[in-house]
Amino acid sequence: MPLDVDPRELQGAIRLAQQLAQPVVQPGGHLHWRAVSIEQQRLDDRVFPLPLPLLLTGELLLSVSERSRRLQHDLSRGASGGKEAHVIVVGAGFSGIGAAIRLRQEGFGDLLVLEKAPQLGGTWRENTYPGCACDVPSSLYSYSFSPNPGWSRLFAGQREIHDYLRTTAEQYGVDEALRCDVRVLRAWWDRSAGRWRLETTDGDYSSEVLVMATGPWHRPRRPEVPGLAEFPGPVFHTAQWDHTVDLAGRRVAVVGSGASAVQVVPAIQEQAAAVHVFQRTAQWILPKPDFPVPRALGWCLRHLPGAQRVMRSAQFRMQEGFGYVFRHPRLVRPLQAAARAHLHLAVRDRRLRQALTPHYTLGCKRLLTSSTYYPALAKPHVHLHPTAVSAARGNRLIGADGAQAEADVVVLATGFHIGELPLARRVHGTGGLTLQETWAEGPAAYLGTTVSGFPNLFLLLGPNILSGSTSAITVLEAQLTYLCAALTHRRQGGYTAVDVKPAVQAAYNTALQDALRTTVYDAGHCSSYYLSPTGRNTFSWPWSTGRLIRSLSRFDPAAYTLQGPPLPSPRSAPITPDHTRPGR
Ligand SMILES: Cc1cc2nc3c(=O)[nH]c(=O)nc-3n(C[C@H](O)[C@H](O)[C@H](O)COP(=O)(O)OP(=O)(O)OC[C@H]3O[C@@H](n4cnc5c(N)ncnc54)[C@H](O)[C@@H]3O)c2cc1C
User: Fold this and answer.
1) Cα–Cα distance between 480 and 460 in angstroms, integer?
2) pLDDT confidence band for 441 (50 / 70 / 90)
3) Helix axes 307-327, 295-303, angle to 10 degrees
4) Is the CB of 399 under 6 A from ligand 1?
5) pTM for the full predicted model
6) Does the keyword Oxidoreductase apply (predicted)?
7) Gap from CA of 422 to ligand 1 centroid (Å)
8) Whose CA is nearest to atom 23 of ligand 1?
9) Rounded-to-integer distance, Cα 584 and Cα 573, Å
10) How far, CA to CA in Å, does 381 sit from each of 44, 100, 137, 212, 375?
11) Does the CA dihedral 96-97-98-102 come out positive or negative?
12) What CA–CA distances, in Å, run from 522 to 276, 324, 329, 339, 539?
């Protein structure tokens, strides 16, 4: 039979089959095995270009489906104790789960997902504050390959989104590959073996390909406020909500007025005796068309073929409309007028309205949506302090303008360290430098995904790939298409390392920064998390989402240095000896 199988994969698969067979055969005495035929098996919609079936000890012929199941299971655990895989994904939020699903669909079943927390979910596991919900409609803020006709609201809440992620992971069998409570501490490229080595809280792991899905909105930012450490009551960040604290009848100070604040303030003011909001910068806020999904619409979404696709596509276009405006700031005025009208209708007090009116171009910071924030601020027991908090004295928070507020509880709605990839200081590339050291001027990548000098490393939701308008899941799925295409190209060509050329990355980033210059993100006269401390925009994609999807729709080998020849056995490569490990 003619073979359409990469010889390296064939070798690797035979070795793996040997390892898989050992526990079955060894008790009976000697182990003999031979491959008797090779075929490309399609199992459970996944393509396994593996040499199957194998005849073991002349008498044990595992059935194809059983072998597939065991092979997958053991591959995902790593046949030698769960520490090696073809692909390791770090992080089990939307990105890591999505990557595992798509990679398995494309035949890359030998993968592990390492997650430091006890369960998957990322953003939607961590952020359990009252009122937490998405601000992109749920039918767009979900995987296109796993639509959910059962969303209860147009913008689902945290618990529902977390449930959706858990259910999707289970449906697609990601659980088999998931290793929770495993924190990646450090990773480095082992040039001689052509593999990534990982130091984790669960010992050493290694893989040919490393996918970083650690999320931009992950590390809570806590403001440095003198005296706050001595505050006598509970102080916690919205992403680390303390559910043991009862807010009923308490005075709550909320520090911050961004995306989390506009959700949490309306939710907590119902119980709290008083709420003090410290606002450093006023935000542009449009009404949020959030409502329970009407029964008729729910029925259509469940029963009419294509209804969900139509809704998703309509929402995509609407978000793209915002994106177009943000790229052409002169068109922003009607949106600003709508936001001002929204403010005017909700807040009758002129001084409060003035304090809530932003003085920069809409879109320069993330545009917020809420129909409940302004009405909450207009209530007599909710007080806006249009100032940053500069100090805490006892149970009093002091504003930079001298304003003071007594509180029993402090909620930090102060966002995240967006521009810092959590592991950037601990991922070492070919020259031993970390990503952070390579990024002296702020994070930069090629198509937000690959970084020169870091072979076989793929960043999900990396630098300059997101925008202030569209769903992060749309961007993520485009990246996953690129990731799968890159790995398929690598597999077909038998390349050990795929490394974007420095000149390609540099030229791409020059064009990108040029294009950003005229967008509202760069030209809107505000400071935002889109900009690094050096003033360079390391967050935003400057073109349309359509262009982003097209750019990532196929792998472009000419942009990469493709290294061969095929490696010897990956599994015979020992875990890196200590002398190759970078210093701490
Ligand atoms: C409150 C809130 C609301 C949001 N709403 C929207 C929205 O409406 N629309 C939108 O597009 N975006 C929204 N976002 C952005 C959101 O973060 C992304 O849409 C998306 O969920 C990111 O998924 P992720 O998997 O990339 O990252 P995350 O969800 O952050 O997951 C990263 C995972 O990596 C794990 N991890 C990190 N470091 C390590 C390590 N060293 N070892 C092992 N594991 C590690 C973490 O524990 C985490 O589980 C929101 C963000 C927040 C905070």
Assistant:
1) 8
2) confident
3) 110
4) no
5) 0.85
6) yes
7) 11
8) 94
9) 24
10) 58, 48, 31, 45, 12
11) positive
12) 32, 15, 10, 21, 11
Cβ neighbours of residue 175 closer than 8 Å, sequence gap 6 or more: 169
Indicate the domain borders of the chain: 7-77, 84-219+418-499+541-563, 228-412
Closest to 238 (Cα-Cα) out of 224, 258, 209, 212 = 258
Ligand 1 binding pocket includes 136 (Cβ within 6 Å): yes
How many residues are present in the chain? 584
For 275, the token pair is 């709420």
Burial label for 569, CB within 10 Å (0-12, 13-18, 19+), is exposed
Alpha helices (H) in 56-151, listed in sequence order: 64-77, 94-105, 123-126
Residue 519 carries which DSSP code?
S
What does the pLDDT read at residue 582? 60
Pocket test for ligand 1, best of 124, 196, 217, 411 (most atoms within 8 A of CB): 217
The answer to whether 89 touches 70, Cβ cutoff 8 Å, is no
- With 0-12 CB in 10 A as exposed, 13-18 as middle and 19+ as buried, what is 574? exposed
Q: Which two tokens stand for residue 327?
A: 């790229």
Name the CATH code of domain 228-412 (choices 3.40.50.720, 3.50.50.60, 3.30.160.60, 3.60.15.10): 3.50.50.60
Where residue 305 falls among pLDDT bands split at 50, 70, 90?
confident
pLDDT (0 to 100) of residue 561: 97
Measured from the Cα of 134, ligand 1's closest atom is 8
Closest residue (by CA) to atom 20 of ligand 1? Answer: 94
> Is 461 close to ligand 1, i.e. is its CB under 6 Å away?
yes
Same CATH topology for 84-219+418-499+541-563 and 228-412: the answer is: yes
Rounded CA-CA distance 350/74 in Å is 66
Task: Give the torsion sign (CA, 395, 398, 404, 410).
Answer: negative
Q: Is 141 in the pocket of ligand 1 (CB under 6 A)?
A: yes
pLDDT of residue 58: 30
Regarding beta strands 195-200 and 382-385, do their DSSP bridges make them parallel or antiparallel, or are they unpaired?
Answer: unpaired
Single out the residue of 298, 295, 315 nearest to residue 148, CA to CA: 298
Looking at domain 84-219+418-499+541-563, what is its CATH homologous superfamily?
FAD/NAD(P)-binding domain (3.50.50.60)
Closest ligand 1 atom number to CA of residue 96? 25
> Cβ(92) to ligand 1 under 6 A?
yes
Reading phi first (left if > 0) and then psi (alpha if -120 to 50, else beta), residue 488 is in: alpha
User: Which pLDDT does position 82 carry in this prediction?
Assistant: 56
Identify the three-state secondary structure at position 42: strand
Query: Which strand (E) or helix (H) includes residue 523?
Result: helix 520-523
Q: What integer is the mean pLDDT of 476-481?
A: 98
